[in-house]
Amino acid sequence: MLFLLVPLLACTSRAPAPPPPPPPPPVVAPAPIPDTSRVPEGVPQGMLRVRLEGDAGHNHAIELVCPQAGYRDRAPIAEGRAELNGAPVEDCTLYFKGGVPAQFSPVRGGDQLVCTLVATTAVCVPDAR
Q1: Is 124 exposed, middle or buried (0-12, 13-18, 19+ CB in 10 A)?
Q2: Residue 78 and residue 123: Cα distance in Å, rounded?
Q3: Cis link prior to 30 (omega < 30° from 0)?
Q4: 21-65 pLDDT, tens digit each
Q5: Residue 123 near residue 112, CB atoms below 8 Å
Q6: Residue 84 within any structural domain of the chain
Q7: Domain containing residue 67: CATH number
Q8: Alpha-carbon distance 63 to 73, whole Å?
Q9: pLDDT band per the 50, 70, 90 thresholds, residue 104
Q10: Are 92 and 63 in contact (CB under 8 A)?
Q11: Are the beta carbons of 36 and 78 closer than 8 angstroms?
């Protein structure tokens, strides 16, 4: 009867368990987004003041982009005015956001402008006020 037990034991043995799955790859934090609203050290800065008249007042914000300094910042338009403190004193482009898409350049930190929109063209001149 011993010869009957050996084949029975051989049939009841289990196959080895599969190996565990490999560990997941480590989580890598994304690179930090650079703060483009700050001017690099050594770049002259100034306050940009914009007064809006006519249809330009329907926009919600201005955005100033200065590629040489790597600067980009927005300011809300409140009561027809917007200000950006610390804008680079270099040639930049002023964009009108949230209404008629228009832009004006060159604009520099320290400028005080009065702007109107003619169709999709921004016309800005020095503000005498």
Answers
A1: buried
A2: 19
A3: no
A4: 888 888 887 777 666 666 667 777 899 999 998 865 577 899 999
A5: no
A6: yes
A7: 2.60.40.10
A8: 6
A9: very high
A10: no
A11: no
